Amino acid sequence: MMTHYKLDKIMEERKVSLNQLVKKTGLSDETIRKVKNKPFANAEIRTLRIIAEALGCNVKDLIDDNAWSYFEKTHEDKDLVNYLSDYQKYFDADNIKFLQRSLSRIGINADITFENYFRALAVRSHHNDSLVLTNMFFRVLKSTIIILEVIDFDVYVNKDVLSEEFIKDSLIKMIDQFATKNEIECIMFQNFGYKTFEDFEVNIDGNDFTFQSNPEIDKNILKNNGFFTYDLPAPLPKENTWIKHLGEKAPFESLKYVKFDWRQIKNLSISLD
Fold first, then answer.
1. Both 99 and 222 in a single domain?
2. Does residue 1 lie within any of the structural domains?
3. Long-range contacts, 255-263 (Cβ 8 Å, 24+)
4. DSSP single-letter state for residue 267
5. Does residue 75 belong to any structural domain of this protein?
6. Nearest to residue 122, comparing CAs of 148, 150, 94, 103?
7. Are 3 and 114 in contact (CB under 8 A)?
8. Structural domain count, the chain
9. 113 with 209, same domain?
10. From CA 246, how far away is CA 181, in angstroms rounded?
11. What is the CATH number of the domain that holds 15?
C-alpha cells in the first residue's frame, strides 16, 4: 500500500499559499511542490514534521487515514519517527537520488514511490516514453542479518534499440551497489520461478517497437554477478529465489554457487515486523 499525503487538501482548508508555506518552513518550493502535487512521492519524515508545524497540525494529519491506521500505537510524532527510522534510512533522500541517477545513466525514466508503510520502494518506468519498461519492488527485511529483497524484477527491453543483457546486468549491478552502500548483508531476488519468455508490441510516437523479457537472461546475469539459487520445498518452483551474500555475518558464506540447503539456514528467521 502506498502512503498518500494530503498536503494539498490541508493547504486549501487553511488558505495557505505555496509561497506562504515556503516562507514559514524555510523549505524550497520544489520540496513542498513534490509533496503537494505528487501525493505518492517520497518524502522525508523531517520534511513532514516541518510542514506540519508550520500549518499547525500533526504529521498524522498529512498522511492518509488508511495508512495512518497502521501506526495506531505510534500516533505521537516522536514515536512515529522512532518507528520509521530503522527502515527509512535505507530509502532516505540520498538513496533515492542514488537510484534515480543510476536509472538515468542506464536510460530509464522511472517514478520511485514509498510502499508498505515506508518499508519498501516501487520503481516503475514511464511507459509512454521509455525504451525500458520496469516494475520493481524493493523491501528491507530484518532478521539476524539485513536483507534487501527484490520482488517482481520485471524488466522489458526494446529489443530493436537496446541489448536486454546490458540493461539487466546494469540494473542488477545498481542493486548490488545500493546494498553495498547501505551495508546490507544479503540480496534476495524473488519470483523467478514463475517467469516465462514474453514479448509484445508498443507504439511510441507512431512507431511500433517490440519489447521482450527473457527469464533465462536474468538467471545467467544473476549467476555472473555472484548470485546462487535458493530452492525451497514445493509448492515453490525451482530457481524461484536467488541470493547473494555481502556481509561478514552472512550465515551461508560457504554456499556460493551451490544449491541452497534449507537445513543449513534454519536459524535465519525472517521477520516483517
1. yes
2. no
3. 255/228, 256/226, 256/228, 257/223, 257/228, 258/228, 259/228, 259/229, 259/231, 260/228, 260/229, 260/230, 260/231, 262/232, 262/233
4. T
5. yes
6. 150
7. yes
8. 2
9. yes
10. 11
11. 1.10.260.40
Residue 140 φ/ψ, nearest 5 degrees: -100, 125
Long-range pairs, 70-76, Cβ under 8 A, ≥24: 70/117, 71/117
Range of the domain at 180: 92-265
The string over 15-24, giving b where at least 16 C-beta atoms fall within 10 Å of a residue's C-beta and e elsewhere, is ebeeeebbee
> Quick check: 105 pLDDT over 80?
yes
Predicted local distance difference test score (pLDDT) of residue 253: 43
Mean pLDDT value of segment 124-153: 84
What is the predicted pLDDT for the residue at 76? Answer: 46
Long-range contacts of 11-17 (CB under 8 A, 24+ apart): 11/36, 11/55, 14/55, 14/56, 16/55
Give the global pTM.
Answer: 0.64
Q: Of 266, 221, 212, 273, which is closest to residue 244 (Cα–Cα)?
A: 221
Tell me the per-residue pLDDT of 34-89, one tens digit each, with 9 for 90 and over: 887 765 555 666 677 788 888 888 777 777 665 555 444 444 445 555 555 566 67
**Which one-letter amino acid corresponds to residue 42?**
N
The residue with cell 534487501 is 148
Grid coordinates 514509498 are at which residue?
A: 114
Q: Is residue 273 part of a domain?
A: no
Contact 120, 139 (CB under 8 A): yes
CA gap 30, 35 in Å, rounded:
9
- Asked if residue 114 and residue 244 are part of one domain, the reply reads yes
Last-in-domain residue among 85, 100, 119: 85
